[in-house]
Specification:
Order of helices and strands: EEHEEHHEEEE
Strand order of the largest sheet: 1-8-3-5-6
CATH superfamily: YjbQ-like
Distance between the termini: 4 Å
Length: 131
């Protein structure tokens, strides 16, 4: 196995609970690749990468408020953002078959901004690994 392609995705985000679709970038990376694995990693300790149906974004955003409440923590500021990131994850591995990510038709890959941020610069690193 070898790393065939690398890509850095830069996002300017607003949050909390904002979802940014990065599916197209992953599809573009896997074009003309028979088989492999896309590894996606979000730099930082408060962002999250998720895989959900594209038509469930609003519902998911609302449920994030209940997953880990914002208030009530001893750590001041953004403890909830760190906990959400820990629970949901900062890493995904997606198989590639016949030139595209092996996702069900309606599934999309999103970066989730958990911080109460405005114009925060985020980086997502993507590697395509092939035989």
């Amino acid at each position: 196995m070898k790393v065939s392609r690398l890509k850095e995705i830069e996002l300017v985000t607003h949050g909390p609970n904002r979802l940014y679709d990065v599916t197209r970038e992953l599809e573009d990376l896997s074009t003309n690749v028979k088989e492999g694995i896309i590894v996606v990693f979000s730099r930082g300790s408060t962002g999250t990468l998720i895989r959900i149906p594209g038509n469930k974004v609003e519902e998911y955003r609302k449920q994030l408020w209940d997953l880990v409440p914002i208030v009530g923590w001893q750590h001041p500021g953004n403890a909830y953002a760190h906990l959400r990131s820990t629970l949901l994850g900062t890493f995904l591995a997606i198989p590639v078959f016949d030139g595209k990510p092996a996702l069900e038709d309606n599934l999309k890959i999103f970066f989730v901004e958990n911080q109460p941020a405005f114009n925060r610069h985020r980086k997502i690193f993507v590697a395509l690994i092939t035989p």
